[in-house]
Here is the input.
Amino acid sequence: MVRRRPLRRRPVLHGGLRPGALLIAALEENLRRFEAVVSFNGKAFDLPLLETRFILARRPPPLRARPHLDLLAAARRLWGLRLESCSLQTLERTVLGETRAGDIPGRLVPQHYFRYLRNRDPRVLKPVFEHNRRDVLSLLSLACRAARRFESFLEDPPGEDGVHPLDLFSLARLYRAHGFAEAAVRCYRACLDSLPPGPLADRAGLECVRLLRRLGRAPEAAALSRELADARPPRLWALVELAKDLEHRLKDYRQALEVVDRAVGLAEGLRAGPAVAGTGVSPEALAHRRDRLQRRLRRAEKRALRPDPAPPESGPAFSP
Here is the structure.
């Protein structure tokens, strides 16, 4: 006995397209009107999901070649160091100064949609549309705020005051990563002016010194190293950077050795195991640098003690 499967009705609309394919076709026509994409976590979630749906419908994804600004990534680069979370609601509250009232949580949106599929009552989708409308408006405000923040230190003097030190450090790194070296230096210096001594200030100072050196501004880098080496409390990494400049650029081995001796004494007071905590400098590296400077200084002193070779005696003038 052969059991026959019950027939399933599959609605077909508009030239053989099923409802899902019809939705994809309408979405494709709508998306092709736009030249770029702005999203929030769209690179990791929304666009891959859309591309999968288009591929399953045997249609080319229309947004694959479009420029895409994912504001979640931008927000993490600009404010992530200061904020515990970079969710859109957190950014609205802390960056935009806005608080939603009467809005449904995003986690309830699928529940409202499935309820609509069951009873076909469009009124259950009204809070979903309102939630999405607020999301879009927040993305617009956030994009404008991020653009203003990025442009703020491109000018000298900066166009924005009162920026949090953690945001300054994040902005400096963003500038440096995208080739805006002068703006990065301004941000690092503003960060150093507003931060108390600590690990973050050390990172900002060290990155600023090394960036100045790469820009060919070694005297300025050395001046900043000396300023922070003579601060209270002195920065161990600044002593090391100053010793490097004295040794390799100025060839002043004696003064470089004095600076390294100061660094060794400071490291002994800060020692917390095989490496000096929070400085990136090990006692072994300092000892190696001191030994090398001592050898170089001895060779330089020996060369200084050698008598100058006597000039050759002039013989009789040659006459043809």
Remarks:
- The chain is about 60% helix and 0% strand.
